[in-house]
Amino acid sequence: MIPLVKLQNILSRYNDLEQSLSKTDIDKKEFVKNSKEYSSIGEIIETVKKFIELYNDREDLKKILEDKQSDKEIREMAEADLEEIKNKEVEYEKIIKVFFCQKMKQMKKMLLWKLEREPEVSKHLYLHLICLICIKKWLLLIIGE
Question: Is the dihedral of CA 7, 11, 12, 17 positive or negative?
Fold first, then answer.
């Protein structure tokens, strides 16, 4: 399971990037770098938010189940909901991991293709390299290595 703190870090970084990009006095290079990173994780951020929400719901249901004074019917509903949440968590975790692995592969293929056709290191290629490094950073955060 993906540690919650890692997902919260991704969400926090996404929010920080969003604030940074909304500033009017941002440096052009920083803006480009932040834009690349922001767009690279923007596609998956809703799934990350849903995963965090599921985690919080799961913790609430666990409290209901641990409460010995809870009604039997309420406990049964909580158990059923908890099982459903666990299944959704597995699904979302898989989506998140696959997303970042695919992003990494896409960027690697694109960079290799560009290097074959444009051997001189250009500013454009450098920006893509920065994006790849950002995606790798997020992938390592998620996988936990």
Answer: positive
